[in-house]
Amino acid sequence: MRVSAEDKQIRVVVADDQTVVRESVAAMLDLYDDISVVGTAADGDQAVATAIAERALVVLMDLNMPGVDGAEATSRLSRRAPDVNVLILTTYGDDESIMRALDAGARGYLTKDAGRADIAAAIRTVAGGQAVLDQKVQQQLVRAAMQRAELPAGAQAAPPAGLTPREQEVLTLIASGMSNRDIAGHLFVSEGTVKTHINNLFAKAGVRDRAAAVTFAFQHGLGPTDAA
Description:
The protein is an alpha/beta fold. Helices cover 50% and strands 13% of the residues.
C-alpha cells in the first residue's frame, strides 16, 4: 500500500500505554496536513485491531505495553496486514525487544526524545516503504546483533556467499549509519551506483531494508570498526 493521488494523507495509528504520550503524539501529528491520526491504542491487541479496522498505513508503536507488547503486535500485523508499516517509538534499551520487533518486520525505530519533525519525517519515510533507524536505536541493534552472532566488534568472519568486496564495503557503511549520499561521497561514486550495490546486496543477503541489513552485517562480521 502506498499513499495514492486520491488520498494524500498518511493514515496513522498511535499505540502507547501511557495516555499522556499517546494523546500528545496524536495531537502533534494531526498538525501536519499530510498525516491523519485515525486511531489510538493502549496495547498491542488494540493496535492490531485499530490498524486493520481503520486501514492505517503506519502504526507508531511503543514496545513496552501490557499484555501484547509492541514486538508481538508487529508480528501479528506482519501476518494479518502486511501493508501496514510499523514504526517503533521507544524510550528504553531492551535490546531483545528491539531485535524481536526487527525480526517481526518493523520498518523503523525512533527514541522518544525525537523531535516532532523527526517523527513526521520518519512516518513519511516508512509510509513509502523505506526503513528508518534512529542513531541511538541503531547502536542498540548493533550490540544485540553482535551478541547474537557472538562476535566482538570488528571481528572477521567468512564473507557471506555471493557478496563482492565492494558490496561488503557498502554493507559495512550502511551498518555504520551512513545514508546513500554519505556512502557515495565516502566511496567517490554516484548515488545511482550506491543504489545498485545496495539492491544487489539486499537481494543476495535476503533482506528487504536497512534495518535488516544492519543485523545481517554484524551477524557476518561486517560491522564498522573504529576506522570505518
